[in-house]
Amino acid sequence: MDVLSDVIAVTRTGRPRSAQVRWHAPWGQEFASVPGSAGFQVILEGSCWLQAPDTEPVRLGTGDVVFLPHGSGHTLADSPEWLVTAPACSPDDSGSYDAYASDSVDRSGSGGPVTVVLCGAYRLDPTRTHPLLLTLPDLIHLPAHPDRRPELDAAVTLLTAELQTPHLGTDAVVPALLDTLLLYILRIWFTGRPAGEESTGWAAALNDPAVTAALHAIHQAPAAPWTVAALAAEAGLSRAPFARRFARLIGQPPLGYLTWWRMTTAARLLRASDAPLRTVAAQVGYGSEFAFAHAFKRTHGTAPGAYRRGN
To answer: In 127-240, at which residue ranges do the beta strands (DSSP E only) sit?
Structure first.
């Protein structure tokens, strides 16, 4: 798997949530701050204002997409002056809303202009948040534009249709579409950065062919006996220049990131399967169950068996 795919597959936990909501002006809705989550809003029809703490209101129009990778609290309203009184919506409100819903909320309107919003939320593992996500700004705004990648709009259309008219298999289709939508948002963001805008960080790393080649090698084969020299060969560089370049962009040395990724992958395997510890150890590059357990406890603060029982 490539880096972006792995970020979603490994760090997302639990069931994502999504809804299509129709409001009639005047209206306003607060979305609670939920650390350890990520969410998006897509304006399907009409317009509204997004307000977040310590920022100027942002006007959103039909086709605009906003992504909040850190679960930041915010408000949507038909006017920047609207005083929101409705209870805050949260991805933890499993008892208040269906996981996948359409036109389920319209508390405050009185027949004014319509705004239709497609929203979604992902619960992430706050203890293993990928550093790629940590480097993102609190708010990513992708305005509607004729040249915007059509696959993002296609994913929005498919998700909207599935929410409006659930069929057999909806419980499998919607999470897959939510993952797809999130990947398209991240792809557009990372590939759309102007050349030279950032010289360090993941935005620069994913546009650096040498570092990207090494990252892909780690993610595709975390159990391989990687050395700095072997990863440098994947990157097409000599050892020392590769190590400096990787550390400058990623923020840690190559083998440090390798260990972090192995332990993150091990945590997912422990949560998602009942495979013996020796099997998990082998899948992340440890020939000894004892060595694996020692490395896992050093990283996670608990032994693999206790971690599995606790999850």
So the answer is: 140-142
- Quick one: which H or E segment has residue 7? helix 3-11
Can you tell me the distance from the alpha carbon of 201 to that of 135, in angstroms, rounded to the nearest whole number?
A: 7
Main-chain phi, psi angles of 180, to 5 degrees: -60, -45
Name residue 54's amino acid.
D
The span from the CA of 295 to the CA of 199, in Å, is 32
Amino acid occupying residue 200? T
Residues 211, 217, 219, 224, Cα dihedral to 10°: -130
CB 250 within 8 A of CB 131: yes
Distance CA(264)–CA(270), nearest Å, equals 10
Query: If you count them, how many residues does the chain have?
Result: 311
Tens digits of residue pLDDT in 240-267: 999 999 999 998 999 999 999 999 899 8
With CA atoms as reference, report the closest residue to 139 among 23, 272, 261, 50: 50
Measure the CA–CA gap between 118 and 105, rounded to whole angstroms.
12
Per-residue pLDDT reduced to its tens digit, 162-196: 988 888 888 889 888 988 898 899 888 887 765 55
Among residues 263, 261, 254, the alpha carbon closest in space to that of 227 is found at 254
pTM of the model: 0.79
Tokens matching residue 117: 């919003």
End-to-end CA gap in the chain: 25
Whole-number pLDDT of residue 261: 92
